[in-house]
């Protein structure tokens, strides 16, 4: 019985390793937890029915080069990764939102599970008139990031904080954080719902 159980567990372990190798799902490694992102509220259990992101809050990885390249419109919050499409569902505009103020100095915080050489961190915000009940598109975002933090190929620590001034906005908005990896084709995407 013990040998049969050990063989079964070994088989499951090998299958899991093969799945990670084939899908790349073991490669995702960071998300914003201040203001808390959709990945974060799914990962901590504040929001239910989030699918796989509930166990992999750090895995929203997609192609880099945003906004010229990267995930397709309507798939930005999931980084173009269909396994995490629940993050792109606007849920009728009912995602929990962090209260913020326009013109406020704010400290953004990333949780880094695996440290990658980094090009930069960039923060985009939705335009005035943004409809939180629709999936996020490039046209919804101000064209330039309101905060860019260059890293020039350095590795971040286990947590990374950036301070910047929030733009003057009113109502509900979405902040898209993009962590661009320096030495791969990928970036990490993190959507945080905020209310001004």
| Number of E-state strands | 9
What distance lies between the first and last C-alpha atoms, to the nearest angstrom?
A: 61 Å
Can you give the mean pLDDT?
86
Sheet-strand content, in percent, reads 25-35%
Largest sheet, strands/sense/barrel:
6 strands, mixed
Query: Helix coverage percent of residues?
Result: 10-25%
CATH homologous superfamily classification: chitin-binding protein cbp21
Please identify the top-level CATH class: Mainly Beta
Helix-and-strand structural type: alpha+beta
Order of helices and strands: HEHEEEEEEEE
Rounded radius of gyration (Å): 18 Å
Q: Count of DSSP helices?
A: 2
CATH topology: Coagulation Factor XIII, Chain A, domain 1
From the coordinates shown, what is the CATH architecture?
Distorted Sandwich
What overall geometry do the principal axes of the alpha carbons give? Answer: globular
Unreliable residue stretches = 1-28
Number of domains: 1
In short:
This protein is α+β, with helices and mostly antiparallel strands and about 200 residues long. It contains two helices and nine strands; from the N terminus they run H-E-H-E-E-E-E-E-E-E-E.
């Amino acid at each position: 019985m013990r040998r049969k159980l050990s063989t079964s567990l070994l088989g499951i372990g090998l299958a899991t390793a093969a799945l990670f190798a084939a899908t790349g799902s073991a490669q995702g490694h960071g998300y914003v937890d201040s203001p808390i992102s959709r990945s974060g509220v799914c990962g901590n259990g504040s929001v239910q029915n989030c699918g796989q992101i509930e166990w992999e809050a750090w895995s929203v990885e997609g192609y880099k080069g945003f906004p010229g390249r990267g995930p397709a419109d309507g798939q930005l919050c999931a980084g173009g990764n269909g396994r995490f499409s629940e993050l792109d569902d606007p849920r009728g505009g009912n995602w929990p939102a962090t209260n913020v103020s326009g013109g406020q100095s704010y400290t953004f915080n990333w949780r880094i599970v695996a440290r990658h050489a980094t090009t930069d961190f960039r923060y985009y915000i939705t335009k005035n008139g943004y409809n939180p009940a629709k999936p996020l598109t490039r046209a919804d975002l101000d064209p330039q990031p309101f905060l860019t933090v260059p890293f020039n190929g350095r590795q971040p620590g286990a947590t990374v904080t950036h301070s910047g001034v929030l733009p003057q906005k009113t109502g509900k908005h979405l902040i898209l954080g993009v962590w661009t990896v320096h030495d791969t084709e990928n970036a990490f995407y993190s959507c945080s719902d905020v209310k001004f």
